[in-house]
Design goal:
By secondary structure, this protein is α/β, with parallel strands linked by helices. The chain folds into two domains: about 1-70, 2-Layer Sandwich (60s Ribosomal Protein L30, Chain: A); about 80-245, Alpha/beta knot (3-Layer(aba) Sandwich), CATH 3.40.1280.10. Helix content is about 35%, strand content about 20%. The strands form two sheets. A six-stranded parallel beta sheet has the order 7-6-5-9-8-10, with helices on both faces. Strands 1-4-2-3 form a four-stranded mixed beta sheet. Helix 5 (about 105-120) links the parallel strand 5 and strand 6 (about 120-125).
């Protein structure tokens, strides 16, 4: 997999466990901030190659590479059971994000970035008919995929039922819900927050599994929020309630 962009590559290099195979820099790169990347690559004994701008664009399949890229082994998804176990070992209230067939890579990357910043424990995505972790997702996450566990599952509904057996409360983001996320008491509980597809929202079988359906109160004229923005607001509200208890 080719990861491109300054911040994602720096995040990769700052993680000793990342499996970087080679670093690429554009020959005509006018940026003056590549020395940090070169020094780190040298200290880790990584191969570095100089390419023309056109060669970089061909390698990355985009012109938005900022003249910096890295070749890494294919992304390895995390085991969800391990993510839950790690939260329990830290004696932290669980906060997972379940994405019900989100399709836009930019949304997925932005949600992963926000989840990492706000302190969620992991993101869960379906294996089929949904965005997966690709180079564009890595870039949109600003490298957060290197720090936040992302799990990919075959059957999201089964995962939800298994989580409920473990005492996890399922909270669905639903713009039609009369209950706002601010009104719903979300303190003192392990939570899996579910965000639906950009166009269709939550699937009916997923919605029926939710313990709570919550919305974001709106006073403007725009009818809905971008999926990643809405998810970020809900994560923040859950964290705010926890910190105020």
């Amino acid at each position: 997999m080719i990861i491109y962009g300054k911040n994602p590559v720096i995040e990769l290099l700052s993680n000793p466990s990342s499996q970087v195979e080679e670093i690429y820099l554009a020959r005509d790169n006018k940026r003056n901030d590549t020395s940090e990347i070169l020094n780190t690559a040298k200290s880790r004994g990584l191969k570095t190659s100089s390419l023309t701008k056109e060669e970089m664009s061909d390698l990355c399949h985009t012109n938005s590479h900022q003249g910096i890229a890295a070749r890494v082994k294919e992304f390895e998804y995390s085991n969800l059971a391990d993510t839950i176990s790690n939260a329990k070992q830290k004696r932290e209230q669980l906060l997972l994000l379940l994405l019900d067939h989100l399709e836009d890579p930019q949304n997925l990357g932005a949600i992963i970035r926000t989840a990492d910043v706000l302190g969620a424990h992991g993101v869960v995505i379906p294996k089929d008919r949904a965005a997966s972790v690709t180079p564009s997702v890595v870039k949109a996450s600003a490298g957060a995929v290197n720090h936040l566990p992302v799990s990919r599952v075959v059957n999201l509904a089964k995962v939800i039922r298994d989580l409920k057996k473990e005492g996890v409360w399922i909270v669905g983001a639903d713009s039609s819900s009369p209950t706002s996320v601010q009104e719903q008491d979300l303190k003192n509980m392990d939570i899996a927050l579910i965000t639906g597809n950009e166009g269709k929202g939550l699937a009916q079988n997923i919605k029926s599994e939710c313990d709570f359906l919550v919305s974001i109160p709106q006073s403007g004229k725009v009818s809905s929020l971008n999926a990643s923005v809405a998810t970020g607001i809900m994560i923040y509200e859950i964290i705010r309630q926890r910190n105020s208890s």
